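Re-run with default settings, no changes from the original entry. Doing this only to confirm the output is reproducible before filing.
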Amino acid sequence: MRYEGKVTIVTGGSHGIGQGCVRVFADAGAHVVFCARGAKEGGDLERKISAGGGTALFVRCDVSKEKEVRALVDGTVARFGRVDCLINNAGWHPPHRPIDDFTAEDFRDLLELNLVSMFVACQQALPYLRKTKGNIINLSSLVGSMGQLHATTYVATKGAITAFSKALAIDEAANGVRVNSVSPGNIWTPLWKQAVDASPDAAKTRSDGDHAQLLGRMGTIEEAGQLCLFLAAEATFTTGVDHILSGGAELEYGRKSRVS
């Protein structure tokens, strides 16, 4: 029970890494409030956590809408009286396309969802986090620092999240609030499963995904949740740091030339 009685908000918590965080924090004794746009998935997860003896409350919320984010935070405080940890996980990776095939409006919409929503959630939660000397964990991505083919808009949002987290950590140090980011590489999520299922050679696509890491496999959503729990519960002298969760994907040389 490494986080017993602490109150944690997780955005985008009904599937993928967000779901991993919800499960891990609930298992650690936290009261977890999580949100997503899909009511069915969220409700199902809330019931599973409760059936297992944990405390989880699902709130339907579109994080791109400021009023709904404010209601999420206010509702958490009304229910549990405090906030100890905010995990900003909600976001989206568009299909891979060259820059010519994105519009400026596509980019603006993604910035609102992936980046501005985090700004709003931090802004709304900080008055309560300052009281508890709590912490914020923002989910970035390994590609925010190393780039990715045909993903200019997504990579830009993730690089901005890492930079935003460092700047906020500086501002909030005087208030006793720690701010860190986590940059996952390949984690086996529903998005990855969709890519494998849609591939003409599913076995090869899965194998390529696994062997992009030195460890020869993708990470799990529970491993992502455990890293976040460590940052929240035990890494009390850590702030402003981007924590890479990659299985070694960014190490060593590999074939990268686009020249035939």
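The CA atoms of residues 58 and 199 lie 33 Å apart. The chain has a mean pLDDT of 97.
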